[in-house]
Design goal:
13 strands, 13-stranded mixed sheet, mainly beta, about 250 residues
Length: about 250
């Protein structure tokens, strides 16, 4: 079980949207089962997301409305599959440079030795597109990840997934050239600053800061009932369709 708090500050947020935006969630993992609860202001779960990694089927649940929607888990593309996509579409991968530095700082967090790593990711300013820079400043421990998306093993070793980047949007594909140690493990404290450069088309620059902190971490056994649909729900295939839904 892992309980986290995430604080997001956006320099280009709509005035009607809370800024910073604070969310809390609890994630559970046991065997092939996953669950994530989004916590409301009343400290109780308002939305739950249950996934089965074996069947690759998930259930998104609105606990207040007593509704759920069934969905299929996303598939992760390997490097070879991404290259095939680029070849078929005639696209060119967006080049992104990333570098991780081990500061050498160490401390014990949740009973585990933690490493302080800083990763900097940069995208060159392309013609008509935007450049930018991201800084991931985090403390990492060797611990099982929540893995709510049931990711295959290669996801934990490819820079495309380990570092990732918000500087490249679909349908474009990033090709990440990484140096230094990969920031693997569980980030129990992480601050990400994403600086998006202005574009030639007039889109202004933007800075988004995400601060994520693990508040509780436990390896105690979990009840199987956590991963079962609660009684009294009815299916709504349109649940969260066409409006803001929690990210999976």
């Amino acid at each position: 079980m892992m309980k986290t708090q995430t604080v997001i500050t956006d320099s280009d947020t709509n005035p009607n949207v809370a800024n910073p935006n604070v969310t809390r969630e609890i994630q559970y993992r046991q065997g092939t089962m996953r669950r994530r609860d989004i916590i409301s202001d009343t400290t109780t779960a308002s939305i739950a997301d249950i996934a089965n990694c074996e069947t690759r089927v998930g259930f998104l649940i609105d606990l207040g409305a007593h509704e759920y929607r069934k969905y299929k888990l996303v598939r992760f593309a390997s490097e070879a599959q991404r290259d095939e996509y680029l070849h078929k579409t005639g696209k060119t991968a967006v080049q992104v440079e990333s570098k991780t530095v081990d500061t050498g700082e160490r401390k014990v967090l949740f009973g585990h030795p933690a490493r302080h790593l800083i990763t900097t990711t940069k995208r060159a300013h392309a013609s008509g597109g935007s450049g930018g820079e991201e800084i991931f400043d985090g403390w990492y421990i060797d611990h099982e990840l929540p893995d709510r998306s049931c990711a295959p093993d290669f996801v934990r070793t490819e820079p495309y997934y380990v570092t990732g980047t918000a500087l490249v949007d679909y349908p474009d594909v990033a090709q990440i050239h990484h140096t230094g140690p990969l920031p693997t493990g569980l980030a129990v404290k992480l601050k990400v600053i994403s600086k998006h450069a202005a574009t030639k088309h007039g889109t202004p620059g933007r800075t988004i800061t995400v601060e994520k902190t693990v508040e509780e971490l436990s390896d105690s056994p979990l009840s199987p009932s956590l991963f079962q649909l609660p009684n009294g729900l009815h299916e709504n295939p349109e649940l969260f369709q066409g409006r803001t839904a929690p990210s999976r």
